[in-house]
Automatic annotation (TrEMBL):
<keyword id="KW-1133">Transmembrane helix</keyword>
<feature type="repeat" description="Solcar">
    <location>
        <begin position="201"/>
        <end position="288"/>
    </location>
</feature>
<protein>
    <submittedName>
        <fullName>Solute carrier family 25 member 53-like</fullName>
    </submittedName>
</protein>
<dbReference type="GO" id="GO:0005743">
    <property type="term" value="C:mitochondrial inner membrane"/>
</dbReference>
<dbReference type="InterPro" id="IPR052465">
    <property type="entry name" value="Mito_NAD+_Carrier"/>
</dbReference>
<feature type="repeat" description="Solcar">
    <location>
        <begin position="22"/>
        <end position="101"/>
    </location>
</feature>
<keyword id="KW-0472">Membrane</keyword>
<keyword id="KW-0813">Transport</keyword>
<keyword id="KW-0496">Mitochondrion</keyword>
<keyword id="KW-0812">Transmembrane</keyword>
<keyword id="KW-0677">Repeat</keyword>
<dbReference type="GO" id="GO:0051724">
    <property type="term" value="F:NAD transmembrane transporter activity"/>
</dbReference>
<dbReference type="InterPro" id="IPR018108">
    <property type="entry name" value="MCP_transmembrane"/>
</dbReference>
<dbReference type="Pfam" id="PF00153">
    <property type="entry name" value="Mito_carr"/>
</dbReference>
<feature type="repeat" description="Solcar">
    <location>
        <begin position="108"/>
        <end position="194"/>
    </location>
</feature>
<comment type="similarity">
    <text>Belongs to the mitochondrial carrier (TC 2.A.29) family.</text>
</comment>
<dbReference type="InterPro" id="IPR023395">
    <property type="entry name" value="MCP_dom_sf"/>
</dbReference>
Length: 290
């Protein structure tokens, strides 16, 4: 997810390749700087993962992690840190590039930014699904015995067909990322403008708009994240399609929306911190270059 390009940017700026390069650079930088909050809230993320996989209450998930100790607590932290930085680089830069391409034939509008976000989200899914797959396998404690290290996981996934290995759950990930990026790019700019009218600074306005947009996306698309986590956590076993996996998940949640959203409040907290900071930093850098 990323910020909407400045609507006041002139045609010369839009056509400058360096402007596109700066979008990639600023996206990577803002995401890299937001990795500190990612480290801090990683235990929160792992608590959510346990709730998604095992359908446990938050206090039981916390007790499980506490008993396992700090070493296992941060097992699986490397993929999200690497993915966070590369993700921001690709998504921010690619969305800005697509907006420029679309603007050559039509006016740069909110719908243009949203459409560019949708396209960037699809590319993001193809590139980063393997990262998410490895991360989910690492975080599943049931894999600790037969897949104890990152190397063992990579070796095992290499023996699988792409659709069952690195690219398992590609379809729901693509739907989640494309829709999420589209919503984010379409709403962030207008929300920032509304907040700025209240007399707040540009940095604060960007942080708030990024936070509110991320919150809306997390709540709306949370069921897809739960589905992805359950599809990717295991290696091997019975082969099921997306709809069959959804049916199994829905039954395991006792056909309850409340149980399906278990852990959703923690997702909101994590998204507010990481994307709020990343958005504020990115917008600040873009304004400085403008």
């Amino acid at each position: 997810m990323a910020g909407i390009p400045d609507h006041k940017q002139d045609e010369v700026g839009l056509g400058d390749p360096m402007v596109r390069f700066h979008s990639f650079l600023h996206g990577g930088t803002s995401s890299l700087l937001s990795t500190l909050p990612t480290l801090i809230v990683f235990p929160v993320y792992k608590t959510v993962f346990r709730q998604q996989i095992h359908n446990t209450a938050v206090h039981l998930a916390v007790e499980q992690l506490f008993k396992e100790g700090p070493v296992k607590l941060y097992r699986g932290v490397a993929p999200p840190l690497l993915m966070k930085t590369l993700n921001g680089t690709l998504l921010f830069g690619l969305q800005d590039t697509l907006v420029h391409q679309f603007s050559l034939s039509s006016q740069n509008t909110i719908s243009t930014s949203a459409l560019a976000g949708f396209g960037a989200g699809m590319v993001e899914a193809v590139v980063f699904t393997p990262f998410e797959r490895v991360q989910n396998v690492l975080q599943n404690s049931q894999n600790d015995r037969h897949l104890p290290t990152l190397k063992s996981i990579l070796v095992r996934l290499n023996t699988q067909k792409p659709a069952l290995g690195y690219y398992k759950a590609l379809l729901p990930i693509t739907a989640r990322n494309a829709l999420g990026s589209s919503i984010y790019f379409g709403l962030k700019g207008p929300l920032r403008t509304v907040v700025e009218r209240q007399g707040l600074s540009q940095v604060v306005s960007s942080f708030i708009s990024g936070t509110l947009t991320s919150m809306a996306i997390s709540l709306t698309l949370y069921p897809l994240s739960v589905l992805v986590a359950n599809m990717q956590a295991q290696v091997g076993g019975e082969v099921k399609g997306v709809m069959a996996c959804w049916g199994t998940l829905w039954e395991s949640r006792q056909r309850s929306v409340a149980l399906l959203y278990r852990g959703g409040s923690l997702v909101i907290l994590r998204s507010c911190i990481t994307w709020g900071i990343a958005t504020a930093i990115y917008d600040k850098q873009q304004k400085r270059e403008g």
